[in-house]
Amino acid sequence: MKATRPANVITLKQALEVAEKQQYAIGSFSPRYTSMILPVLRAAEKSKSPAIVQISHKELVRYGITPAEFANEFYERVSSENITVPVVLHLDHTKEIGTIKDAIEAGFTSVMMDASEKNLKDNIAASREAAEYAHARGVSVEAELGMIGTTDFVETDKDEELYTDPKEAKLFAELTGVDALAVSCGTAHGVYMVREPKIDYARLQAIRALTPVHLVLHGGSGVPAEMMAKAISLPGGGVSKVNIATDLELAFLGAIGREERLTDAECKALPPELLEVGQAAVESTVADKIANFLGSKGKAESFKA
């Protein structure tokens, strides 16, 4: 655990309360490689935008990173780069309470318990356990209801999709006490290759009408900007957190002329000049998302009001 957390490193709940009121979304960016945390933070700082830096349990395993290694790199870069915008360190899709405990110990300010493949009763029980543990330590909790499809299986295992039921969302929020809820309404993790992205706005509005929790949209990569803008600005509060992972990795790999994913160690071993090319591509992608997709450019000021 970080002994003294910088004042601008905040919880997910703190971040989304402001974003929802002001009708913009905060990007939850998955660098996947620890070397890509730097360009994400740089883009947020230059754009004067709040940002969430995240990694999932499966990504930790796939890329060979521990929660402590990811958190240490995050805090070191926040310090060395003099990052002043509000930032959240978030553990994304995780099914194991042990990983959540490790992340909280390492200094993560937000965690996600994803028990969406379980039945409603068991999902509620697992999410409530995570919420009680995290809240006692000043950490926010996200959960998932419904099932969000995938096309690349890095973050989640399933490619099936089960839309979130608004009435179940109301019950789920009341019984778990989570701070944010990832809802399934048409998007998918990964790259859209066959089916077109779509967003069920009526379902989002029905969920919002019945529950006060902040809404999260996973599968932000590849969704048209105008579609996302509508989801963010729904009356009464739309989507406040959008997950973006695949677009960052594609930008990085494309810039360095690679097609196959690397491990974190392989990424660190790249020649410095090549690594910088990759970092520049990630920074540019994040800056573009902030300005043209999320509506969060210049919004760091909204936290001072």
TrEMBL record:
Keyword Transmembrane listed: no
CDD domains linked to this entry: TBP_aldolase_IIB
Binding locations of dihydroxyacetone phosphate: 190, 219-221, 243-246
Molecular-function annotations in GO: aldehyde-lyase activity; zinc ion binding
Residues reported to bind Zn(2+) 1: 93, 189, 218
Record-listed Zn(2+) 2 binding positions: 114, 144
UniProt cofactor note: Binds 2 Zn(2+) ions per subunit. One is catalytic and the other provides a structural contribution.
SUPFAM superfamilies to which the protein is assigned, alphabetical: Aldolase
CC cofactor: Zn(2+)
Active site (catalytic residues): 92 (proton donor)
Domain of life: Bacteria
Full protein name: Class II fructose-bisphosphate aldolase
